[in-house]
Each structure stands twice: as C-alpha cells, then as structure tokens.
C-alpha cells in the first residue's frame, strides 16, 4: 500500500502511468468503445464495474496535462444528426477543472478521427461506462 494513491488505481495502472512520457496519450473508454481492436498496439487495462468519471478523477490526481497542447483533453464528437444527450461531458468539464484551471482544455474530435488518434495511445482503459460518447483522451505533460 502507498499513501496518496487513489484506491481505484491498481499497481498495473500506476506502472503504465509512470512509464508514460510527455505527449503520450491515454484513453478512458466507455463500454461501447472498440478497445481491443483499436488498441492493438496499446497497453490495455480493463476496469469493469467502474465508470469513466471516477477513473478520470483518480488519474488526474496524479497525471499532469500537457501545457504545450491547446487541447490536452479530447472527447469524441457526436456524429452529425445524432441527437443523444451527453451530460457526461459536463461531468468531464467539472472534473478536469478541479485539476487544471486553464480554460478550454477539452477539445472535440470527429468520431473516426478519435479512433485513429486512439490507435496511437500508449494506454487504453476499458470501463463499464454506459453513457454514450463517454470516451476521453488525455495527453500527458511534465511535472
């Protein structure tokens, strides 16, 4: 056991977070995300039974966001014409703003471009999140 590490952060997840360098990306994926096909070249951690927001909150306690990128946090944009509500995006904004006070950190990426960017991620965390468009990508900064 270590002090100050959120209990939801497993030793395996802590290892990968520590291994990541500046500009490396991680994706916290909802339950519908094609984690294993998109993440063929990434480390994958399954965190079934947990939602994206609780994992995001725990990770941001430890994880510096990139200060050299205008949008070090990215979300998957809705497909044009899709009218589904996305209240999870408001939760993402609240959580991110607790750890980084810069404005406008969260940027959107078109759905298929998000998949392409996720293919380059160092780490993908698969969750049981049921919210649609509940995927978020973080780009690591420096301490």
From TrEMBL:
Keyword terms: Isomerase
Q: Name one GO molecular function term.
A: fucose binding
UniProt entry tagged with the keyword Isomerase: yes
Q: Which reaction does it catalyse?
A: beta-D-ribopyranose = beta-D-ribofuranose; alpha-L-fucose = beta-L-fucose
Among Gene3D superfamilies, the record links this protein to: RbsD-like domain
Q: What is its EC number?
A: 5.1.3.n2
Query: What is the designated name of this protein?
Result: L-fucose mutarotase
What species was this sequence derived from?
Answer: Lachnoanaerobaculum saburreum F0468
